[in-house]
Design goal:
It is built from 18 helices and 16 strands. By secondary structure, the protein is an alpha/beta fold. The longest helix is centred in the C-terminal third of the chain and has 25 residues.
Length: 490
């Protein structure tokens, strides 16, 4: 008698296709050697790209990121019907909304193995009724799942602290959902010609020290603090004295001035009072909030390559200001500006647009040439799961300045492959950046350790192998339980 071995079905699910396309790059192709893999998410071009690149099946089910009871019920029903029809052996989700809906639908459909990986938690950073609702949603998710996987130690500790589940919490390998491709993220894999062309296009000099930020440009990534800290560094030395000739200043009077900006609604007296307060707090977190309010009320920027020029009818049109920035330092902002959710402050945006030493690229498909131009990654985020940006930068030989939060403080060891600072501390961030600018030997030591640390702990092949072993062990255990108790309903 000829026995044909049946290949098990594995469904990988995320709310939006970008998550599958970016977070699981290469992993689905690897797993497809051992399982019939189907990628499930909301519709999008990224899902088509993933199918072509990974060689797996896909299925589109519309899911909303935000809480939307009616549409969520429709998504739940569609997932349930699809699971009931296809009868997968494993359903494995990775994002919050997809996790909740997929685990509920899979349990209703009798899927034997229901896995969810928490790539980060939202509720620890929320307050009030929203926090309570998010906790209940995660508890329901875990109640419906058979196996729970925190992405890192910090996520695991939060799940335990808030009593989200009593089920066993296991971290695959050393954490992260996909590991890092050390062949892809390698300076040697990027041509010197491509780096030189990019350097020329971005007007970055060979002797520039380049800080790089990689991610969405939003408040919770610490962008307000980063821009304000960099602004302070760029102005530390060499704001030169200038002579102002006007009706209110004598020929010999000297001033050291910050940028004057145009009044729109306030009287001249009110403007001067407000601007004094603004300039006194120009580098504090309080100052960030103040600058945002003032920026919406009375200010607008006009800049040139040589500095910010005063405008407006205040009797000072004759000013010739020489504002020399900190020598040989650049800040490269690589990522999309998100003005819909969690936007940055108004004057943070203005500083990004107008500071000639800040270069904003928008979203890019290949971050490697940009990392190859960098000297240090800066990620002063308020919350993370297990940040890929830090892994990618480390693999490219860059140390990182990161907040003391989940994920970041697992990848970075302070003083070995980067620096760890308190979250939301602009002063600590500025001091860490200055330390790397001013101590070349220390910076070089951090750079030399960075790739080796990532290579030892976070190779994607190691994580994929460990995940495959976990699937095998879980399926074998599930099959044994089913044989022992055919009527069991897990």
């Amino acid at each position: 008698m000829l026995f044909i071995k049946t290949v098990k079905k594995l469904f990988r699910i995320a709310t939006v296709p970008e998550s599958l396309d970016i977070l699981l790059r290469g992993q689905l192709r690897y797993l497809n050697q051992f399982y019939k893999v189907t990628a499930i998410s909301s519709p999008g071009a990224e899902l088509d790209q993933l199918v072509q690149r990974e060689g797996v099946k896909s299925y589109e089910i519309d899911m909303q990121r935000a809480i939307s009871p009616l549409r969520d019920l429709v998504s739940l029903w569609n997932l349930y019907r699809y699971f009931q029809k296809e009868k997968p052996d494993i359903v494995h989700s990775i994002t919050p909304k997809a996790g909740l809906l997929a685990m509920m639908a899979a349990r209703l459909a009798g899927v034997p193995v229901r896995m969810h990986t928490f790539t980060g938690l939202i509720f620890p950073y929320k307050t009030g009724i929203l926090k309570y609702i998010l906790i209940l949603m995660d508890r329901l998710l875990c109640a419906c799942a058979t196996h729970i996987y925190p992405e890192g130690k910090g996520v695991k500790e939060d799940l335990e602290r808030y009593n989200i589940t009593s089920k066993n919490l296991k971290i695959i390998a050393n954490g992260n959902v996909n590991g890092i491709d050390l062949h892809h993220f390698d300076r040697a894999a990027v041509s010197v010609e491509d780096i030189d062309l990019l350097r020329e296009r971005l007007a970055i000099n060979l002797d520039d020290f380049v800080f790089i930020f990689l991610g969405r440009i939003v408040k919770d990534k610490g962008v307000n603090e980063l821009i304000s800290a960099f602004k302070s560094i760029s102005e530390l030395s060499n704001v030169q004295e200038i002579t102002i000739t006007s009706e209110r200043a004598s020929q010999n009077e000297k001033f050291v001035r910050q940028p004057m900006l145009t009044a729109i609604t306030s009287s001249e007296e009110e403007m001067l009072t407000l601007s004094e307060s603004y300039f006194q707090h120009s580098t504090s977190v309080t100052g960030l909030n103040l600058r945002n309010r003032l920026g919406k009320i009375i200010y607008r920027y006009q800049t040139t390559k040589s500095g910010i020029n005063p405008t407006g009818d205040d009797g000072l049109q004759g000013v010739q200001q020489i504002h020399k920035l900190y020598p040989n330092v650049k800040l490269l902002m690589v990522g999309a500006l998100d003005e819909a959710l969690n936007p940055i402050l108004g004057l943070t945006r203005a500083e990004i647009d107008n500071n000639p030493h800040i270069i904003s690229t928008g979203f890019v498909t290949d971050v490697r040439p940009y990392l190859a131009l960098g000297d240090c990654l800066v990620l002063p985020s308020y919350r993370e799961g297990f940040p890929n940006a830090v892994l990618q930068a480390g693999a490219m030989g860059l140390p990182s300045i990161v907040s003391d939060i989940n994920g970041c403080n697992e990848i970075i060891t302070n003083g070995i492959n980067g620096l760890i600072i308190p979250a939301k501390s602009e002063e600590a961030l500025k001091n860490a950046m200055l330390q790397l600018l001013n101590d070349c030997d220390f910076t070089k030591n951090l750079q030399q350790s960075s790739r080796q640390r990532i290579k030892e702990l976070y190779s994607h092949q190691h994580l994929w192998d460990e995940l495959l072993l976990e699937y095998t062990a879980v399926l074998n255990k599930s099959s044994a339980v089913s044989r022992a108790n055919p009527t069991s309903n897990n």
